[in-house]
Amino acid sequence: MYQIVKDQLDRDQSVIDLMDAMERVYSFVDEIQSVPDKINTLEKIIDSILLQTFNCAMFIQEYAGCGFTKKAFSEVFTHRATQKINEFTQKFIEMKNTLDSGIAINTAVVSSQILGKVDSTAKQETLRSLQPANMKQFARQGCLPGTRVDVVDLISAWVAHPSKDQNILWLHGLAGSGKSTLSTTVARLFRQTKRLGAFMFFDRNVSEQNNPGLVIQTLAYLLALYDHRIGDAVSAVIEKNRNIANDDVDLQFKKLLLEPLGGLVDLQLEGPIVVVLDALDECGSPKEREPLLKVLAKEFAHLPSFLRVIVTSRPDSDINCQFKSERHVLPYQLDITSKITRKDIESFFRYRMAEVRTKNPSLSLPVEWPEEQRIQALAERASGLFIWASTACKYIDAHDPEERLVTLLQADMGLDATSALDTLYTTALQFEGRSTDLAFGVDFRVIMGTLLVLRNTLSLSTLIELLAVDKTRPLEHIISQLGSVLYNNGIIRILHPSFADFLSRRDRCKCDVWFIDTTLHNIRVTRDCLDRLDDFLEENVCNLTLSREAQASLPEHIAYACVFWVEHVCLIEDTSCIADRLSAFLFKHLLHWFEAMSILKRSKDTKEMMRRLRDWHANALPGNPPLQELISDAYRFSQAFSNIIGKHPLQVYTSALPFTPVDTLLYRKFHDESRYPRIVTLKSREKSWSSRLATFTDLEIRDCYCIRFSPDSTQVMASGRFGVFLIHDVTRASSNPPIQGNFSRSCAFSPDGTWACSVHEDGFMRMWDPILESSIMEPIRIPLGGSQEARFLVASPHGTLIAYSCGRTIYVWRARSGTKIFESTPRTAQTDITCLAFSPNSNLVVSGSENGDIFSWDLSSGGEILGQSLDCTARVLSVHITFDGSQILSVGNDWFVRVWNVTLGTCKLATPLQVHNGVAQLAAFSADGQQIVLSTRDGTIGLWSSSSGVQIHIITTNLSAIVDLALSPNGRVVASASERSVSLWDATIPANLTVNLSHRQWHAPWIKNGPCITYSSDGTLLAFSATENKQPNPIILILNGKTGIEKYKPLRGHKGSNIRSIAFSPDSLRIASCSNDGIRVWDATLGVRVSAFTEALASSIQTLAFSPDGCRLVSGARDGGAIYVWEASSGTAILGPLHGYGLRPQSESIDSVSFSPDGGRIISASGHGIIHVWDAESGATILSPFRGCANDRSVWPRVAFSIDGTRIMIQTKHADFKQWDAITGDCIATRPTNVHPCGAIDRFTFCRPSGWIIDLTTGFYLSYPTVPLISGMCSSSSQTSVAFATSNNIYIIHYPPRMLSL
C-alpha cells in the first residue's frame, strides 16, 4: 500500500514538473516582442506549441478529475498516465530548445488520445454497409481570422470542461447570421487538435444531406473512422445486424452509438470528442425529422460525457420545442445586434474589399478604398447578417466595383435583418435594368425555378441535359451573370437559403420578374424528367449480358430523373397537367425504370417510391382506375421483387415479370412469351397478388419453432434452431441476426413489450430487452424433459409472471426475480400440453393437451380447479380466457370452438368453423379472443370469428410445413414460421372465401438428391415423385413437359418409402424408379408395372439409368458403392456387383450412373465426386477412379458421357461443371460444349447456395426463382426448359430462343 501511495505522489510531482516545463516554453512571449521579425520565421513552431498546450491541458484536466483513489489503484490509468506525462514533458523541452535555436525540428504533437485508423479492408467494407451520407466539405468557408472570437472561445471552453448535465450545445440564429461559417471554423479548430469525431452539415438541396434517416448511421460511420476502437465496436454491431442501416433511428442510436461508446472505458480517460451538426433545420421537413429530434433531445443525454455535440440551426419551432426544456441541451443564441458582431462584419468588409483592390490593379482604386465611412455604412446595412456582407462583397466584385458600391449604398436601408436581405437581393437583381429584359427574366426564372425545386444539386452540364431550354441563349450565359447569388464550382447552387426564401415569396421580392412559383416550376421539372426518361429508357438500355454481376452506369441527368421523378410528381396538386403524361410514361416505361434503378443500385428505394406514388394517385387521381391498378401492381411488384431486381438489372424481365401473377395488369401489359420466360405449374398459378408482405429465408432464420408479435404489433420474434430473432419493423420487414444464439423452441413478449423471454436447449430461460437486445437478468435454470416433449411459454397480462410447460408439467416464475412459485402436473394428464394462457387478472393459468384435455389452476391457492376431457380426442390447438375470467375458449383440430365454464368445467357451446377443408394443424386466438387464426396441413391460413364460426379471411401460402403462426394484436398481420422461412401476411386484403381445397394434396419429399424430378430425353414428358394427401406410399406423376398438365395417370406400387431415382427410357415409353422396396419398371402410357426387382440387393439402390437401347438398367447403391446392370424386362441382374472406389471406403454412396452412347461403357460418380469407368459387358475397369471435383465435400454429382462418347461430363449441386477425356482422364474443359440430350447432365442448373438458374451452355445467369426451393438438386431440364419442385408444387420455366443464344 505504501508503494502505491508513493508512486502516486511521484506522478503528481511529475505533473508539477510538466507544468514548469510549459511555463518555461511560454517565456518566449516576452522575448519575441523585442524581435517581432522572428514571428514569421517561428510561426510553425508557435502553432505547434499552442496545439501541444491544448492537448496537454486536456490530459491534466482528466488526470486531476479522476480522484486520488482511482489514480492510485487503476493499473491501466497509472501506466498510461506515467507514460503520457513523460512524453508531454519531453516534447515541451524540445520545443523550448527549438525556440532558443531558431531552427525548426520535428514538431509532431503528443496527444493524450490513442487514435488509430480502421486497419483492415474488411472492416472498412463492413462500415460502408451503413450507407453513410456523403459529407464532402468543398467550398465551405470558415470565419476570417480574428472574427467570431467570442463565440469560438465560448465553444472551446464548453468543450474543454465536460459537464454531465449538458452534452449538446445548440447554437441558433436567424438565416444569414453566420452559423455555417462558424460551424466550419469550429470543426477545423477541433480537427487540428485531433478532437473532431464527426462534422455533418445539412443542405435542403442535396438529397442525402437532408435525409434525417441517414444521420445516425453517418455519425456512427464518421466516428468509426475517427478512432479504430469505435470502428471495431461499430463493426461488431454491423456484423451481428446487417440490416441496421434500415432500422429506425432510435434503434440505430442504441446499437451504433450508445452501446459502442458506453463500452469504451479508455475513451473516457482521453478528453472530449467533438461532433458538429450544422444547419439541422435543413435536415428534412419538421415531420420527417421528428424521430431524429426526439433522439437528440431525449436519448443523447445518455451518451458518455466526453462526446460533445454542437448543433447549429435556425430557431424553427419544432427544434425549439424539442430542445428548450432538455437539461442536457445548452442553448446559445447568436446575437446579430451586438457590438462584437458589428466589428466582425466591419473586419470582413475590410478584408474582402482589399481583395477586390488587389485583383483589379488596372482600376487604380485608392489604397484607402473604400473609405472607413463607407465600410461603416455597409456594416450598418448588414444588420448583423454575415450572409448580407458576403453577398454584398460578391455583388461589388464586378467589372466596375465602385459603381456597384455606390448603387448598393444608395439603396434603401432595411428596417430589420429580413428587410436588409430583401433590399440587397433586389439591388443585385435590378442592376443594369435586368428587370425590364424579358428574355433575361424568362431564363432567370427557368434557372432559379429549377434550382429551387430540384431535390439534389447538379452540375451545369447535367442541368443543360435535363432542361428543355432555348439553345440560342445557353445556360452558361445566364449563370455567368448571376455570380453574386449563385455558387458555380462545378455544381450549381443558390448562394444561401435566404435567397431561396426571398425568391419564393412575392411579398418579399415584390416583382413578377424575380418571383418563383415553386408549384409551377415543379410541374415543369416533372415534365422534363419524364421527357428525358421517355427519350432514353428502353429494355437493356446498357447492352448488358446475363452475367452474375452487372457493371453499368447512366448519365447524370437520367440518374436524377430516375431517382426523383416520383417525388416531383407527388408534390403536384393540379393533376390535370400531368395525368396523361404520367399514364403514358408508366404504360410504356415502368419496367424500364425498374431496370434503370437496378443499374443505379437503388432497387431497394423503389418500394417506398411506388408506395408514395400509389397513395398520391389514390387521392389526387381517383377517376383513373387503369392507372391506379398499374401503380398498385408496381408497388406490389417492388415489394416482391426489388431484392431480385437488385441482383441484376435484366432480372426485371427474366425473373420478376415471369413470376408476377398472371391476371395483374402489369403482367398482361408487359409479358411477352416470345421475349421473356413463361412459367407453368402443376397447380394453378397465382392469378392476383398474394397476401404475403415479406418472407425471410436467411439461413439463420430457418427452422423456427415459435413466432410471436409484440404488443404494439410492430415487431415479430421467432425462436428456432439458430436462436431468437427479431423482425424490428413489420412494415419495413427487416430482420436481425440472432439475439440469443442458442437453440430455442419457445419465446414470449411481456404485455408492455419492454422485455421478452425465451427457453433454450441449454437448459436456461433468458430474459432480455428487445430494443437494446441485451440481457436484463441472469438466466433461469429450467427443466427440459425429453427432446420430443412440447414446450410453451407465455407471460401474464400484468407482466409479473411467466408460465412454461414441458411435456405434461407446468411451471410458473416471477418475472422480476426469476423465483419459481408454482409447479404442477395434472392428475389425469395422459398427453403433453399443447398450449397455455393466463386469465386477464393473472390469477389463473389454463392449458390444452394433445388428447383434448383442458386444465386450469388457481395460482393464488396452487390448486387445480378444472380438469376436463372433451367428448372427442381432438387436439387442443389454442386456449383463451375471456376478459371477465369466467369462460375458457378452446379450438381443436376438429374445427370446433368450445366455450367452457371455468367454475363448473362444463362445455357451454361448441361452434363449428365454417368453410373449411383439410386437417387443422395450428391455431391462435387474437388478443381479445374475438378471432381465430388457423392453418391447415396444405398451407392454407384462415381467420374466423370465434363466436359465430364465420370465416373472415383466407390466405393461400403454398407452404406445407407451417410449424407456428400468430395474429398481430391489431389484427392486421399474420406471421407464420415454416421449415425454411418466416413469412408475414396481410390479413386485411379482401380474399376469396371459397377457395377450393378439394384438389389433390401432395408433398414432394426431400431425399438425399432432393425430390426425384426427371425430363424425358425429348423434353415432352416430366416425371416426379410425391406423397399424396396422408397416404404413406409414394407415387409418380407424369406431366406434359410443356404445359405442366398431368399426361398419364399416377404410377402407384412402391411401398412405404420415398422414391430415390426416376429414369425415362430413350423412347420415353417406359419409366424406371427405385425405392427401399426395390426397382420398378413402368409403362408410362398405361400406368402399369412392367417388372419389379424386389431382391435384397435392389433395396439399397440410390440411382439408375437406361441403356441407349432401353434393354438394360444400370444402378448405383447408397451403401457400399455397388453397381449392377439389370435386364429391364425381367429384372435379372446380369452384371455386378462392381466395386473399386479405392479413394474411398466401401461405404461410399453412388449418386449417379450412366451408359455411354454405344452402350459399351458405364460411368459412375460417388457422392464426393469420384468417377469410375467400367466395361458394360465384363465389368472390367476402363478408367481407374479419379476425383472429378476439386474438393472433398459432398457434391451430389450428375455424370454422363458426351454425345460422341469421347468426354466425361460431371455437374454438381453447386453448378460446378467439368469435362474429362474419357480415355486418359485428363480435365479438358470447365464448360459444356455439346450437352448429351439423353444424359444426366442438365443444361439448366441451380447455382448453390445463391439460387441462380445458370445455362451451362452459354454461362448466362438466366433467372432467379422467387419461390422457396427444396434443398438438394430438385430440378431437371430439357434443352429449352427447367422444372423444379417446391414442397407442394412443380414449376416449369420455358425460356425463349433469344435468351439461349450467345
Automatic annotation (TrEMBL):
Keyword Repeat included in the entry's annotation: yes
Keywords: Repeat, WD repeat
Residue stretches making up the NACHT domain: 167-320
Pfam family, one: WD40
First and last residues of every WD repeat: 833-867, 913-954, 1143-1184
Residues that span the membrane, as ranges: none
Organism: Piloderma croceum (strain F 1598)
Protein name as it appears in the record: NACHT domain-containing protein
Keyword check for Repeat: yes
InterPro entries, per database record: NACHT_NTPase, NPHP3-like_N, P-loop_NTPase, WD-F-box_domain-protein, WD40/YVTN_repeat-like_dom_sf, WD40_repeat_CS, WD40_repeat_dom_sf, WD40_rpt
PANTHER family with a match to the protein in the record: F-BOX DOMAIN-CONTAINING PROTEIN (PTHR14604:SF4), WD40 REPEAT PF20 (PTHR14604)
PROSITE patterns per record: NACHT, WD_REPEATS_1, WD_REPEATS_2, WD_REPEATS_REGION
